[in-house]
Amino acid sequence: MYYFIVNPSSSSGKGMKTWQTVEHLLRSEHVPYHVFFTSRKKQGEELAHMISSRHAPCTIVAVGGDGTANEVISGLTNYSQIQFGYIPSGSGNDLAAGLNLKSSPSAALQAILHPKKVLPVTVGCTHTPEKTYHFIVSSGIGFDAAVCHEAVNSSFKKLLNHFGLGKLTYLGIALKQLILLHSTPVSMVLDDRRQFEFDDVFFIAAMNLKYEGGGFKFCPEADPSDDYLDLCLVEKMSKLRILRLLPTAFRGEHVKFDGVHIYRCKKAVIRTASPLAVHTDGEKAGFQRLVTIALGQEKLPFIVA
Ligand SMILES: Nc1ncnc2c1ncn2[C@@H]1O[C@H](COP(=O)(O)OP(=O)(O)OP(=O)(O)O)[C@@H](O)[C@H]1O
């Protein structure tokens, strides 16, 4: 049985149109399915938990943006008994880009109905003193997270989505956030043994996939099935230099800049001198001075082709 969890309001209403296309195809192929629509935050997580604990074995499909995929994945249990599918209809769509998923709803659905490749994907966990959050794309602290915090309720995002340009939201807000940008001392321990101290850091992005923020290829070598997180740490530099760096990050060429460091680890403990914004898959995870970002143990069977 196929269970669909649909965020109708993703990408400013595009989610409903995407679902209508998908439903038409399901009916024309006489595929048995159940559909649930989310109407508020966190409902995707609750639905995913209910379906995976009561109805496995089954295929669970999220229809929406990266935030919806994040909620559904956060709620899933019984990984060995389910297959996860994703039909992108969001603003940024970094998850689809990172896994090379089909972007058209009909092609994405065909891949889910007739899977040729199911990738065992490791899900990440960001532990804060209050709560543990999950992520599949990335989790970050500092500048990139401040951009995500603003993008979540942005009317600019709604406007750009209206013209099919939602991806540019993050770049636009990033340019604005540059004005507010500040750095902080950071101490970081990787895998309980490699210790680093930095005087001034703008942000750290822990990447399971290559892209975040609507296409910034912060960790060009990130691979969701390799059991490692790739970290991109950007030290303080002039704002003019950041302005030059950001566009190169779309091609992953920012790694050549002095002050940009790439690490690979299974666990990162990050302490900052002042509280900084934290995100998981673009969703808010508060302001924190201490986070532990790590990969989980289990692998989620993710239909990728
Ligand atoms: N019916 C709803 N109305 C408003 N918000 C919803 C609804 N259902 C879910 N949400 C919330 O909307 C948030 C954003 O949704 P989603 O990520 O799918 O779309 P998006 O923001 O357009 O895309 P992206 O994350 O790729 O930028 C999710 O965190 C989810 O909790």
Can you walk through the features of this model?
- The protein is of the alpha+beta class.
- It is 32% helix and 37% strand.
- The longest helix has 19 residues, at 10-28.
- The protein has helices spanning 10-28, 43-54, 66-75, 94-98, 105-113, 143-152, 155-162, 168-180, 239-249; strands at 2-6, 33-37, 58-64, 82-88, 118-127, 132-135, 138-142, 184-190, 194-207, 229-235, 260-265, 267-280, 283-303.
- It is globular and about 60 Å long.
- The protein contains 9 helices and 13 strands.
- It folds into 2 domains: 2-116, Probable inorganic polyphosphate/atp-NAD kinase, domain 1 (Rossmann fold); 125-296, Tumour Suppressor Smad4 (Sandwich).
- α2 (43-54) packs across α3 (66-75), α6 (143-152) crosses α8 (168-180) and α8 (168-180) packs antiparallel against α9 (239-249).
- The two termini are 19 Å apart.
- The structure holds adenosine-5'-triphosphate.
- The site of adenosine-5'-triphosphate has 21 residues, from α1 and α3.
- Adenosine-5'-triphosphate (ATP) binds next to α1 and α3.
- Belongs to the diacylglycerol/lipid kinase family.
- It comes from Muricoprocola aceti.
- This is Diacylglycerol kinase family lipid kinase.
- Residues 1-130 form the DAGKc domain.
Helix % is 25-40%
CATH topology assignment of the largest domain? Tumour Suppressor Smad4
Question: CATH top level of the largest domain?
Answer: Mainly Beta
The fraction of residues in strands falls at: 35-45%
For the record, the count of structural domains works out to 2
> What is the architecture of the largest domain at the second tier of CATH?
Sandwich
Round the Cα radius of gyration to an integer and report it. 19 Å
Bound ligands, each once: adenosine-5'-triphosphate
Q: What spatial form do the alpha-carbon principal axes imply?
A: globular
Q: Give the biggest sheet.
A: 9 strands, antiparallel
How many strand units? Answer: 13
What is the H/E order? EHEHEHEHHEEEHHHEEEHEEE
As residue ranges, the low-confidence spans are none
Mean pLDDT: 94
